[in-house]
Automatic annotation (TrEMBL), chain A:
UniProt keyword terms in alphabetical order: Membrane, Transmembrane, Transmembrane helix
InterPro entries from the UniProt entry: Perm_prefix_1
Keyword Transmembrane helix: yes
Residue spans crossing the bilayer: 105-121, 133-154, 161-183, 189-209, 230-256, 262-283, 295-317, 329-347, 359-378, 398-416, 436-454
Name of the molecule in the record: DUF4153 domain-containing protein
Lineage, opening ranks: Bacteria, Bacillati, Actinomycetota, Actinomycetes, Micromonosporales
TrEMBL record, chain B:
Protein name: Transcriptional regulator PadR-like family protein
Pfam families associated with the record: PadR
InterPro entries cross-referenced by the UniProt entry: Metal_resp_DNA-bind_regulator, Tscrpt_reg_PadR_N, WH-like_DNA-bd_sf, WH_DNA-bd_sf
Domain (Transcription regulator PadR N-terminal) ranges: 16-90
Source organism (scientific name): Micromonospora phaseoli
Top-rank taxon: Bacteria
């Protein structure tokens, strides 16, 4: 063995050791470098004492002691490192990631600023938030979501074809929101205000999955993104509430009225910018912070199951039947959405290879009880509709109910197969991700087809 | 004879500060120096030394800098600060008190053999 060979071998061993050590969260890059220098000092001395390079390496590593003990000692001094910190810019170990996160931050600020400015642009044409609710209602999502989609498309370096599709879809949304002659108090206006954001959110999804539209994994990522985005948005909104309270309170103390500024500038600009910021936060923290939505799911699945079962028992006990008003239908729609959310986010966090357990059975119970309740509600509703005729609201609510029911019914079937170990878990995951276009399609139908279908009612 | 872990831990800070008071140094050299000074009796590990150095740096008693040494290797050097020197003086005062008190007990004035503890290791 030549000296050069032995040198290369030693370097390879050092590289391996480095990789091994860097996997420890307690040990940062600089610590690894410091320890490596120590190791090299030790090796040099042993070689000088007459050992061969590889022998010296073994002895030196042995002297360094077990990595477990070492990292435990480091963790005692640097306990903060065990709390995964979200380093937004700077301070990251790796200059390449650092550079990237700084560019991300710049792009996010540009997009958030763009959103904040864009919502004030209609004022140049004489629109005001207070008087033109019929304009801002359906258009609100158009001031926020295109900017988020732009940020995501930029981050993923989307192909020109995809960018074209995104632009076309947002334009279509703008057309749907503004072209139909809807009265200020029409049902369709409210429906569009609710469904256009949903339809556009799926356009954001298109920007999110960018590279691989058909991949089930990427669609699942989008579901995760949606959940985390929602959680972050709520957190930002809470912080915003505190900010508003202090702004109004402190300025009032010196005799300046700030309500106008808050309602005209702070809230609208803040909300649209917060959407972009929330999306950016989710992207930035992806692998750093534990996902929150699945944790909430774990917490609330048993509670919702208990509540629904109690409702079913009470319903059969009292035998009064469900009082079905229009509000009730929406309430039960929302209930199905919550159940579906609980199902989706526990799927999103589940290892598909783990065998079925108690939690899966619990979830099956949740879905089945929601289904039973919904079938009861649906029976009442269809009777009402055949009796009194339909309106856009009823048709939309009914359509949603049917879509959610179909999804949950098949999910329950697949879960039953999984709990009885007849079907793989992946089937359930594929079913959910494959169903996403159905929601998008329905939202677009409500926005585009409903107004003319119901004579702009 | 090996010094117990507790005693090693208690004396670690003044020892490191004392070595750094002689001039800047780096981890491996500090460990070697401690080995020399105690003739290998003090059982210091890397897991003790490096976190301690980082703690002293956080407290502002030492400061560190990366320097390139011959052989194209980066090495982290530690240097004692004024606050570190003050801390060393304070630790030294405390240790002197402890050592003096022990000496008083073990070798009292006029009674050298009062202590029941054998001073020399029988082995």
């Amino acid at each position: 063995m030549t000296a050069a060979d032995s040198h290369d071998g030693l370097e390879a061993q050092f590289a391996q050791w480095r990789q091994y050590v860097q996997r420890r969260p307690e040990l940062q890059r600089s610590d690894t470098e410091e320890l490596e220098d120590h190791l090299r000092g030790s090796v040099d001395e042993l070689v000088a004492a007459g050992l061969r390079a590889d022998e010296a390496f073994l002895v030196a590593v042995k002297r360094l002691g077990g990595l477990d003990d070492l990292s435990r000692e480091f963790a005692r001094e640097h306990s903060d490192r065990l709390w995964k910190q979200l380093v937004l810019t700077g301070g990251a170990d790796d200059p390449a990631t650092d550079n990237r996160s700084r560019r991300d931050l710049l792009a996010m600020i540009t997009c958030a600023a763009g959103a904040a400015v864009s919502i004030k642009v209609p004022e140049l044409f004489g629109m005001t938030l207070e008087q033109d609710a019929a304009f801002y209602g359906p258009n609100f999502a158009l001031f926020a979501l295109p900017w988020l989609a732009a940020f995501l498309a930029w981050r993923r370096q989307a192909r020109p074809a995809l960018i074209g599709v995104l632009v076309a879809l947002f334009a279509l949304g703008a057309v749907a929101a503004n072209v139909y002659p809807l009265a200020d108090d029409s049902q369709s206006l409210v429906l569009t205000s609710i469904h256009l954001p949903i339809a556009l959110w799926f356009v954001v999804g298109l920007a999110y999955v960018a590279d691989d539209l058909r991949s089930s994994r990427r669609r699942m990522d989008f579901i995760r993104f949606t959940g985390e985005c929602f959680v972050y948005f709520v957190l930002i909104a809470l912080g915003g509430g505190v900010l508003i309270a202090f702004t109004i309170g402190t300025f009032e103390a010196i005799g300046i009225e700030s309500e106008g500024f808050v309602s005209q500038w702070l809230v609208p600009c803040g909300v649209v910018a917060a959407v972009v910021v929330a999306g950016w936060l989710v992207e930035a923290k992806q692998s750093v912070v534990e996902n929150i939505a699945p944790v909430l799911t774990r917490l609330f699945t048993p509670l919702f199951t208990a509540a629904l079962l109690a409702f079913l028992v009470a319903l059969t006990w009292t035998s009064t039947g469900i009082n079905v008003e229009r509000e009730a239908l929406i309430l039960f729609d929302l209930l199905l959405v919550v159940v579906l959310g609980l199902l989706l986010y526990s799927i999103s966090a589940r290892d598909p290879l783990v065998p079925p357990g108690l939690f899966d059975t619990l979830q099956l119970a949740l879905v089945v009880s929601a289904l039973v309740i919904d079938v009861l509600v649906l029976r009442e509703i269809t009777e009402r509709i055949t009796e009194y005729g339909t309106t856009p609201n009823k048709a939309a609510a009914l359509g949603e109910n049917v879509i959610l029911l179909a999804n949950l019914a098949w999910s329950a079937w697949l879960m039953l197969g999984f709990v009885r170990r007849r079907a793989p878990f992946a089937a359930l995951e594929r079913w959910q991700t494959g169903y996403l276009p159905v929601y998008a399609g329905w939202a677009w139908i409500v926005v585009l087809v409903f107004p003319p279908l119901f004579n702009y009612l | 004879m090996k010094v117990t872990k507790d005693l090693v831990a208690a004396s670690a800070t003044p020892m490191v500060l004392g070595i750094l008071a002689d001039g800047e140094s780096y981890g491996y050299a500090i460990l070697k120096r401690i080995n020399e000074l105690s003739a290998g009796e003090l059982d210091w590990t890397e897991g003790l030394l490096y976190p301690l150095l980082h703690r002293l740096e956080r407290l502002g008693h030492v400061e560190s800098s990366w320097q390139t040494v011959p052989g194209e290797r980066r090495r982290k050097y530690y240097r004692i600060t004024t606050s570190g020197l003050a801390e060393l003086a304070e630790q030294r005062r405390q240790w002197d008190t402890v050592v003096n008190a022990l000496r008083e007990i073990w070798v009292g004035p006029g009674d050298v053999r009062r202590s029941a503890i054998p001073l020399a290791d029988p082995a």
